[in-house]
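Side project, low priority. Logging it here so it doesn't get lost.
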Amino acid sequence: MQLKQLAASVALVAAASSSFATTVQGSSLQDILNGLYTCGTCAGTAAAPNVNTSQTDEVGKFEIEASGGSVATMVIEVAGNANTNTFGIYDVNDASNYLELFSGPAGQGYRSTLLVTLINGSYQFTATVYNQLAQPVSFAYKTFSSATFGYYLGTGIGPSFYSEAGKNANEYDHMVAFQGDGDKIQVPGGIPSEWGRSSYILAWEDLPLGSSDQDYDDMVVYVESVTPVPEPASLALLGLGLAGMAAASRRKQKQKQKQA
């Protein structure tokens, strides 16, 4: 009985940390996701994630996987501010410290490689941007306080809206994310290939939510080889629950041994 109760407690913790629904208005973003599935050898539009029910539970913090490298691909921009909107990463401990991955003129099919290296105890992020012809067009680097970063959408120079909702006005979500599930898709400039679990589609709203259409299609970016970082509080609660389950299991095993 104790084991079942602890398991239920852990389930409640997980459920409490997964309340993340953001309502996407209109059909534009859904059409964009469907379009990634329509290549000749892809899975078909029926397999595309639903923009309102398939959102990934993330808190807006990410890290690059063990290879130390990630790639971001511009899928589409349909915003009136497309020529000035920018996209990049920021230091979660100091949001004024940021690294641009795409400038305003960047368009569909642009790619940015992002590398992180540990140098004298500091984390150096380096971005190289390539146009649709795979020609390098810019190179920049910044030092962050940790390997953890957030993504931002800028409506000029620097961040305007953050992947961490708590950093936005009224703590609104200006980004919705969708995690790969093994489907085959084709991003602009790429070939039909698997959309793996360490790749995400990030869709953004570029106006304050109170005065926007909330369609989250203003900038859509595909990022790969990254993993979300959960909140420490959620991890601690989950760890306590798992520790309790383990202790209960050991007690139950000892009771069985005594009865034997």
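Brief comment: Residues 1-19, 234-252, 254-259 have pLDDT under 50 and may be disordered.
Revisit when time allows.
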